[in-house]
Amino acid sequence: MKEKCDLHTKIDTKRTELDLLKKELKTFERLNYANVPVALEAKRVERKIQKLTKEIAELKET
Question: Is the distance from CB of 42 to CB of 25 less than 8 angstroms?
Fold first, then answer.
């Protein structure tokens, strides 16, 4: 039972982090990537979003 609870906690934590990253990405999009460092940061956030989405899917399968 504890493992299942821990799994739900992990999923919730990753979902929260994912939501925050999506908000951060929207901020970058509003800046229109006018600045090269912002564009690079946006790409980093996009990769992190993909990674978290994959991790959440894998955790749900277990």
Answer: yes
* Residue 48 token pair: 């992190």
SS3 15: helix
Q: In terms of C-beta density within 10 A (0-12 exposed, 13-18 middle, 19 or more buried), how is residue 53 classed?
A: middle
Q: How many separate helices (H) and strands (E) can be counted in the chain?
A: 2, 0
Q: Using one digit for the tens of pLDDT, what is the confidence trace for 10-43?
A: 999 999 999 999 999 888 788 775 667 877 888 9
The pTM of the whole model exceeds 0.85: no
